[in-house]
Specification:
Elements (H helix, E strand, L loop, with lengths): L4 H17 L6 E3 L9 H17 L4 E3 L5 H7 L4 H11 L6
Parallel strand pairs: 1-2
Helix pairs in contact: 2-3, 2-4
Length: 96
């Protein structure tokens, strides 16, 4: 994906419609695709943020970097404050 905004929007839209299209279907995404061509120092932040954004739309499972402990914590629900902040920003709220 490499950060193409149209592909990102399409993935969110698809996830939001998945339950209507295929009831009971589960979703999975490789979050590292968002940072494929990004500079190395940005990759972990892009992957973490993309995972949290996908979670807002009901992502069920993710392929993630097992060496990124913060990404694992996000995936396992141990960073609810970060997830909440990202979701609020997606809804147009400005962080304080």
């Amino acid at each position: 994906m490499s950060g193409d905004i149209n592909q990102l929007k399409a993935s969110f839209e698809f996830l939001s419609l998945l339950e209507q299209i295929a009831p009971g279907c589960k979703s999975i995404a490789d979050v590292s695709q968002v940072s494929r061509d990004a500079p190395l120092e940005w990759k972990q932040y892009l992957n973490r943020t993309y995972l949290m954004m996908l979670m807002k739309y009901g992502l069920h499972a993710a392929i993630i970097d097992v060496f990124d402990s913060e990404l694992i914590d996000i995936a396992r629900g141990r960073k609810p404050e970060l997830v909440s902040m990202v979701h609020k920003m997606m809804d147009g709220e400005v962080p304080i």
